[in-house]
């Protein structure tokens, strides 16, 4: 849980940096490419290919390609089809995908995970909903593509970790994750990128360096490690914990307007979903023992 809380705080700050210094100023495909490349460079020195078999390496690469490469391609494309509030609103459905995919991959059905995930969606919706325009269905589906890729990457990582030795040194194999992401990010930039919209200031380069080395490199490693140490319900809920965290960072540092009552109400609903999930897990453990 500590991993997920720490990365939530890290990503809340990083998303604000993107909105203030990069969005609409730096080509998004280049930003994704540089973030993935820098994150990959963080882990390449630690890479020990002998620790994984060929199929396991390919599986980890596929997870990186889906969770980062394809997800970001969908996500940035959605901004061409929807307003920012609509994009933010439609990202809140990720917990539902995580709850359903985790049950599917582990061959079970856990209704409480779906209930708490829906509560997390409700809490995030209370915070983010600002109304939507007509004719948004294509954009909605594009955002759901991004949500599904991010959820599939997390649950797939949990499934892969369950089949590997618990003593595996993940920092010695995680480079494959970013190599897989690079397989998608590089062609995407070559096909769709705009070389005329590269960073033009040292501040923009600095923000991209932070996002690549820390937010992407350290962040995705810690988040996926955290995903293997909690139950699916907690993981699903924490995917929407970024909503109040991001708004708080924006409010405190950049003094952006925020509807405080809605922020508090939505945050309370998300916390309540975490409490309900924790209560149920404890009750199940007592019953089993």
TrEMBL record:
InterPro entries attached to this UniProt entry: CO/AA/NH_transpt, EamA_dom, EmrE-like
Domain EamA residues, every copy: 3-127, 139-276
Residue intervals passing through the bilayer: 29-46, 58-75, 81-100, 112-129, 135-157, 169-191, 203-223, 235-254, 260-280
Alphabetized UniProt keyword annotations: Cell membrane, Membrane, Repeat, Transmembrane, Transmembrane helix, Transport
Localization per Swiss-Prot or TrEMBL: Cell membrane
Pfam family, one: EamA
Keyword Transmembrane helix in annotation: yes
Keyword DNA repair: no
Bilayer disposition of the protein: Multi-pass membrane protein
Main location: membrane
Stated name of the protein: Carboxylate/amino acid/amine transporter
């Amino acid at each position: 849980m500590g991993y997920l809380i720490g990365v939530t705080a890290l990503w809340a700050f990083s998303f604000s940096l993107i909105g203030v210094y990069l969005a609409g100023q730096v080509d998004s495909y280049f930003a994704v490419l540089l973030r993935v490349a820098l994150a990959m460079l963080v882990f390449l020195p630690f890479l020990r290919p002998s620790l994984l078999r060929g199929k396991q390496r390919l599986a980890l690469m596929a997870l990186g390609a889906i969770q980062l490469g394809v997800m970001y391609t969908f996500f940035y494309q959605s901004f061409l089809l929807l307003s920012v509030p609509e994009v933010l609103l439609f990202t809140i459905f990720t917990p539902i995908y995580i709850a359903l995919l985790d049950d599917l991959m582990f061959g079970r059905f856990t209704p409480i995970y779906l209930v708490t995930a829906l509560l997390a969606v409700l809490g995030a919706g209370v915070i983010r909903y600002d109304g939507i325009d007509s004719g948004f269905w294509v954009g909605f589906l594009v955002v759901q593509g991004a949500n599904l890729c991010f959820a599939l990457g997390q649950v797939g990582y949990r499934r892969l970790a369950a089949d590997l030795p618990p003593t595996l040194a993940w920092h010695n194999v995680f480079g494959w994750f970013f190599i897989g992401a690079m397989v998608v990010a590089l062609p995407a930039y070559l096909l769709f990128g705009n070389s005329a919209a590269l960073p033009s200031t040292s501040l923009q380069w600095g923000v991209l360096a932070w996002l690549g080395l820390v937010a992407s490199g350290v962040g995705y490693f810690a988040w996926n490690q955290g995903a293997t140490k909690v139950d699916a319900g907690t993981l699903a809920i924490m995917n929407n914990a970024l909503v109040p965290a991001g708004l708080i960072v924006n409010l405190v540092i950049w003094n952006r307007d925020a509807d405080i009552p809605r922020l508090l109400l939505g945050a309370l609903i998300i916390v309540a979903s975490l409490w309900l999930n924790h209560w149920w897990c404890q009750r199940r453990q007592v019953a089993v023992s």
